[in-house]
# Entry
Amino acid sequence: MQLKPKYLSLLILVLLVAAAPLFFPSGFYYRVGALIFINGIAVTGMVILIGYAGQISLGHAGFAGIGAYSCALAPVYLNIPPVAAIAFGAALSAALAWVVGRPILKLHGYYLGVATLGLGILISMVLLNEAQWTGGPDGIAVPDLGLRGLLRDMGLRVGAGELWYWVAALVMILGAWLALNLFDSPTGRALRALHGSEVAARTIGIDVPRHKLHAFVVSAVYASVSGSLLAQMNRLITPDVAGFMHSVQMVTMAVLGGVSSVLGAIFGATILTALPQLLTVFHQYEHMVLGLVMILVMIFLPDGLLPSILKRLKGRNEE
Amino acid sequence: MSALLDISDLGIAFGGIKAVDGVSFAVRPGEIVSVIGPNGAGKTTLFNMISGLYRPSQGQVRLDGRDITAMEPHLLARLGLSRTFQNLQLFGDMTLLENVMVGHHLRERAHVLPDLFALSSSRRSTRASADNALALLRRVRLDKGAYREARAMSYGALKRLEIARALALEPRILLLDEPAAGCNAVETAEIDELIAEVAASGVAILLVEHDMKLVMKISAHIVVLDHGRKIAEGAPAEVARDPQVIAAYLGQHGQDQVLHAER
Ligand SMILES: Nc1ncnc2c1ncn2[C@@H]1O[C@H](COP(=O)(O)OP(=O)(O)OP(=O)(O)O)[C@@H](O)[C@H]1O
Ligand SMILES: [Mg+2]
# Structure
């Protein structure tokens, strides 16, 4: 029996996540891994928005910001437990995406890019300027999720890095499962169809604005959850999480790895997260390298790294 | 039988130039009506108005007596109006099977949450669409390439794929814009047979086609456009003898073809 592509992708993901710690030279690498997975979550949302539906967003870090600050503020001001704050942030992001998405998604191409850019900037400005709530540019502390304490009470002692490695991995794999389900579903096909030809999609009965909006909302939830986890892992959050560079990073990671494939996009997230963490030289020039990578990929591998590699391997097999 | 599609005084202007001007005609269930005319006559523009892509500046389109002028295309699809495109509009990254599966969109329940969690309702929809789509691909003899990407297929195959996708809607009226363009004789004959078969099942068909042999053979009724106006209409034999039609479009060559087809 042949494994369905969906399960093959998930299996590869699970194996890599489970095996990677065997090669970690130090505990620091758990943290890098957790960061990769947290970015992997946001990037999986971009696959749904850009890869499936063909809509661009240069402002999704704004939703990551909402997720992150929800974890900082909701437990303090609304008395919501830290775990529920993740869901609270996700609901807030979804609601905002729903309201803003309606008018914005009528735009096409770079008009949509500019509008989403504006949305992201707006959110990050609010976070930066409402200092009495958000702590302004210095950031704000995030209440403890309490997971480590809970495990300790159960007699399990795990380091923070290690714990977040597994939590983020679990959420990312869950997110990948959802996105892979969507790909091969009525909604997923409708999204890919309107990506291919909006005119044809409309004439076969697809309510194009509705489906675009759904993709936008779902991807906003991914970004929000990613921001929430980042906040809770770091226990401190600054407005950078909602900044333009973070939005660009999300798109670049997805496009580098292969924006139409979940596995590819996570691969992209892995490369662009790990390199600056592991090579300090890279860290200094991160933004320049990001730009360079983007240009080179667009010219030489417009499908992204993983799909291009797979295509080449396949081509060789068929010869 | 009364008309299923009723077009009256339909017209549109682009920058003051009337691309279609006061065109009226009707199509009954199971009937094949063809629209012919020289390049730029306004045939595709007429289709774009009927299918809701262009908003007419004058006139009305009625489906089953109901005014559907300038209705959203996806709502027209719900009412059973389906079409193909002169310059292919396919989903290149999707497989042939998936291209036809999305044609079943209206019968699928596309709700984002059940689809994300792959609930059984979602999986059932997908399975049913796949079964139906495979049957349709078989009907247009594309089932062998069902799992290949559309972009990898030949032009003739894609023309048939578009028809299969349009049929997946189970339309009551089907608009075909040059379905045989760029197809070889064998493929044209197949498309001819397919169209006749679909009409025989009760679907009303509105056809634009330059292949006069095909048009004369399968049409019950022909509407001739020139410079956006209807210059003639009637049974194939009538239209073929119309001196105005011969002058504007058919020419001597076309008439020979027509007479040939009649024999
Ligand atoms: N969106 C548009 N904007 C401006 N002019 C248009 C538009 N669509 C069509 N036209 C014009 O309307 C006229 C009719 O074009 P149309 O495509 O309907 O012709 P056609 O009969 O389908 O021709 P062909 O046989 O070449 O397909 C042409 O002069 C064309 O340039
Ligand atoms: Mg045309």
